[in-house]
Amino acid sequence: MSSSTSSMVKDLDDFALNQQTVRQWSLPRLAAGCAAAGVRHVGLWREPVRAYGLRATARLLRQYGLSVSSLCRGGFLTAPGAAARTAALDENRAAVDEAAALGAGVLVIVAGGLPSGCRDLAAARRRVTDALAELVPYARAHGVRLAVEPLHPMYASDRCVVSTLCQALDIAEQFTADAVGVVVDTYHLWWDDTVAAQLARAGQGGRVALFQLADWVTPLPDGVLVGRGQLGDGCVDLRWFRHRVAAAGYRGPAEVEIFNSRLWSRDGGEVLAEVLNRYRRYVLAPRGVDDGPPTPPKSYKG
Amino acid sequence: MSSSTSSMVKDLDDFALNQQTVRQWSLPRLAAGCAAAGVRHVGLWREPVRAYGLRATARLLRQYGLSVSSLCRGGFLTAPGAAARTAALDENRAAVDEAAALGAGVLVIVAGGLPSGCRDLAAARRRVTDALAELVPYARAHGVRLAVEPLHPMYASDRCVVSTLCQALDIAEQFTADAVGVVVDTYHLWWDDTVAAQLARAGQGGRVALFQLADWVTPLPDGVLVGRGQLGDGCVDLRWFRHRVAAAGYRGPAEVEIFNSRLWSRDGGEVLAEVLNRYRRYVLAPRGVDDGPPTPPKSYKG
């Protein structure tokens, strides 16, 4: 390995690849592809891990020297009925078990949307806190930190009633910081003019449990789930976020999680190489003249 | 007219139909259709008014006894260059002229998105305030109130950098309340847990210039522009908003503005009748047992 390659790989110490970014890759290909590219941390999802097998996944990670930056996801805690609530709590305990088995210190919690026919957001948000109160002792006993993720307000009805970093911190602060933190995802939070103040608040409390990155591009696709932007393609000041989460005391990796159907249709290795290139240019490198988007976004009004 | 019909029509004194809700209707059909249904206020858009003719539109409105609750829209004030800024200001003065000619006391201001290649939301927001400072004397001289509309955060990059009622009030409060107010649109604000406090703030300052209604339904369509929900089809507590804007001192009509391609494919008269039915049931009527959505939303997670 040349010294240049070595330094290029060393700058990936604080990088993590969420497996959704290269959904086209199986777990063995993900592990081999990351190791070959010098990536040392991966964010995993429960469904592919279960399909491949929990023990087999843990073995694969050891074989390639990979650590798990986060497991996605627990949550969906807004259902009002006792039976649905019990089922959700059971499911979350299983998620904690899986995180512990993978050595993932962080389990991402996506709150869940409004139950069918319900118009009471405040009540749904209260049920999330109440459910976390039951989960926290279990998660703590297994060495897993719960990370409440605010999702963009466009997901408030059907996916996540926690829409801002302020709301996520309001919930997390009901518990000790070692037990419950928050996820800072640039895609969900970039638009919010209170995010600087809330990141400072998160820093004072030591609450940033995970930092995730994707860019914001428009037009949004049908269903708004799989149109997240490759780093640098959109309008998010990713570098600013990196500095702010570092100032907030976050020492974990920057985990790139891009849901994008176009990326999924390409070769996984090519996508990973592009992600690393963009990560170096738009996240790691100092702000410079070469800082514009690589392709002009077509849908912005001048 | 029976006394029952008369009372049914009287409860429309505080109702306005934005013409985008029945985009399939020409202006003459809109005017005749509203008058036949007992609707007395309409919200108009500049493009169809200009296509029909400004004077012809004003004549049509007089003929049918209709008043204009709002004209949409001015704004798009975020461009940084001098030439683009001058052009935008000229365009907004023309919009003020048109509002005055129609007797519309309120011109809706949609701020505009991020300029191409720009990642500085704060700077774009400052340019909106700076441009309004130039427009306010002109609008005031013409008896037109500028109404800053916060749009849902999913439009922050390509349409409107003002995403919350708090931000809209921060801008409006740079000017006197008679000159600059805000738009409260349920579709854009329903998810925000600070909206109650911000509506109270708007009330103290007399800042609510316009109240618009649409419901929130998912899945969102490609481009997220034409999937707003018919009243009652979604998860917004419309009644709550009506009470809060009234408590905030708003005395204008509740203007229903639904961008929905399915509504546009139907007969306009049928759509208006449905809107009025839903308005009575989900906005005017006291909360009751018959308060659930008329059709169960399919995409909510239980």
TrEMBL record, chains A, B:
Keyword annotations of the record: Isomerase, Pyruvate
A Pfam family: AP_endonuc_2
InterPro entries recorded: IolE/XylAMocC-like, Xyl_isomerase-like_sf, Xyl_isomerase-like_TIM-brl
Occurrences of domain Xylose isomerase-like TIM barrel (ranges): 34-273
SUPFAM superfamilies in the cross-refs: Xylose isomerase-like (SSF51658)
Gene Ontology molecular function: isomerase activity
Protein name as catalogued: Sugar phosphate isomerase/epimerase family protein
